[in-house]
Give the backbone structure.
Amino acid sequence: MVSMKTLKFVMYLFYRYYNKGGTRRIPYFSALCAVVFLIYIHIFQLLIILDKVSLLPMQKNDLRIEKYGKLALFLLPIFLVVAYLIKPSELKTLQYDSEKVRKGGVNLIIYIVANIILLFVLMFALSKA
């Protein structure tokens, strides 16, 4: 299970990344969405492994806007929990040494890529079953 310390560090890494460029006005929201997306990838992986993908609230014949709306409602509880656990003011005060941030950034990229690959492998395995 992920500890609060790890969750805060991952949020910090995303916050730091999104604090530049076009997202510099909304770095907290962007970091929050990125973390929720990672959590959602894990949930989807578990649903595939448990063969419970049908629990997702979407149908094939739904309109695109309906799918996005249902997905948003599905993600909302996770979004609210993470937002409750990590406040923007707390995130702004976090500080880590530059070496830990550098290693954490590299590890986070590897982690994201590995999880996306795993998700596609699981989806491919499910489609063949």
Q: What stands out?
A: The longest helix spans residues 98-128. Residues 29 and 60 are 30 Å apart (CA to CA).
